[in-house]
Amino acid sequence: MNSGMINRRDILTGTASLLAAGSLPLPAHGAAGAAKEFPLVAASARLSLVGVQHPTTEVWCYEGRVPGPEIRVRQGERLRVVVENRLPEDTTVHWHGIRLPNAMDGVPHLTQKPIAPGGYFTYEFECPDAGTYWYHPHQSSAEQVGRGLSGALIVDERDPVEVDRDITWLLSDWRLLKDASISDDFRNMHDVAHGGRIGNVVTVNGAVRDTFQVRAGERIRLRLINTANARIFALEFEGHAPKVTALDGQPVEPHEPPNGRVVLGPAMRADLIVDMTGAPGQSFRVVDRFYSSLNYRLLNLVYSEEPPLRTSFARDHIRLPANPIPEPALDAADRHKIVLGGGMMGQMRAAILDGKRADIRTLFQNGLAWAINGVAARGHVHKPLLTFSLNRSYIIEMVNETTWHHPMHLHGHSFRVLSRNGQPTRYKEWQDTVLLAPRERVEIALVADNLGDWMFHCHILEHQEGGMMGIIRVE
Ligand code: C2O
Ligand code: CU
After folding, report:
1. Under CATH, which number does the domain 330-474 receive?
2. How distant, in Å, are the alpha carbons of 2, 32, 118, 225, 276 from that of 73?
3. DSSP class per residue in 99-117
4. pLDDT tens digits, 228-251
5. pTM above 0.85?
6. Ligand 1, closest atom to CA 134?
7. Superfamily the domain 166-303 falls into
8. Ligand in closest contact with the CA of 95
9. How far is the CA of 194 from the centre of ligand 1 (A)?
C-alpha cells in the first residue's frame, strides 16, 4: 500500500499546524523507529453504493472512498497517520483493537482534543499484534460511522500463513431512503432503546455485490470486519467449511464456527481460511442468518471455469502465531462484576445521571436508555467504573440483565473470554469485543498492562451514546 504514502510537503503542512496546536507526537527517527505514513482526509463525497441504476449517495468518508483506504503495516512496525478533518464538525480516529498508548486512542476529550473542522492530528504508534483491526471516529460515532467513516487496518504477521489470496470484506450497514440518500434520523429514541440503527442496505467493501469470483482449489484468507452501527451478522458459507483462525485480530485454535455460522457483532472481526472445494462453474450462496425473519443472501461465491488450482488441501499450516499478550494469572486475579441494564422491555426504572438519580422518563428526555452498574453515561469523560493497578490480573463478570444483545468493547487491551453462563469457553479466545446475548453472563480476564483511561462500551453505537459506556482506569 505504498500508494498511500504521504508526500513530504503534506507532512510538513500537517506538522506545522499541529505544532501550532501543540499536539504533535514527536516522530521517531532512525531506521528502527521509522514509521510507515498514511494521509487520512475525512470529508464528504458522493459515491455509488447501491449500483448505477440508483442515484449516488452523499457519504462522509476517508480519502474519498468507502470504506477508507486499507492501512497495512507489518507487526511491530510504527504507523503514522496524518488525519485532516474536512468534515463540518469535530472528529477523531480510534484504532479499534490496537494495544496502543492512551494518547493515541482517539477518544474525544478523554485522550485528545477533538480535531476541529480544518484541523489536523497526527496519530503515531506501534502495532504490537498481527491481525485484522479497523479505524473509525469516536466523536458522534453513531452518526459519523453511520455516514460511512470506517476503514480496515491490517497488521501482517512477520511470517504470514501461506494462502493464494488474502482478502478483506468490510461489512457495512446503511439506512438509505428511496433516493439512496442516508436517512438522517440518527439517535432516534426507538433505535436507542431497541437494537440500534439497523439499516436496509448491506455493503461489502463499499458496494452492494452480487458475486465474489473464486477459483476452484484456491485457499483464501478472508478477513471479515463488521463496521455496522448495530447489525449483527451470522454468515453461512453454503457448500464450504471455513475455519476460524483469528477473532478480533487475535489467533484462535483453528475451528469450524459453531452451527456453521460466523457470528459478528458490531466491531468484531474474524479471520477465516476458506478452501474453495467447489468445481469450476459452480456458484454458492453466502447467507446472513442472524435475524431469523430477515435472512438474506449477502452474495454468491462464483467459481470461474479455470481448472482447479489444486485438488487437495493441506490440513495444517493454518494456525497463526500467537501475539505477545500477557497471560492473566487467574488464581491471583481480582474479580469485578459489571451489570448491563436498560432498554425496552427491561427492568430499569432509574439510573444515575451526572451524579444524580434520574427516572426513566428523565433519562429518555436526555437521549439515554441504558446503564452500566446503574450509571447512564453521557459524553466520554466521567468517573471511572473500575480502577485497575498496572500489570495486575483481573476477571470481570459481565451480566446482561437486558433483553438485547450487546457487543461490549474495551479499549487498549485484549481479554480472554473464560466462560458463558458458567460454562467454560472451548477456546478461551482473545477478544476486544465480546457479544453478550440477552440475559447472558460472560467472564473475561486480562492483565491491565496499559496505563490510562480506557473506554469500555457497547459497540452498538446507539447504545453507547444512549448511556452504555464507562471508563476503566489503569494506574
Ligand atoms: Cu470501535 Cu470505542 O470503539
Ligand atoms: Cu448494547
Report:
1. 2.60.40.420
2. 10, 14, 27, 17, 28
3. ---GGGS--BTTTB--B-T
4. 999 999 999 999 999 999 999 999
5. yes
6. 1
7. Cupredoxins -  blue copper proteins (2.60.40.420)
8. 1
9. 20
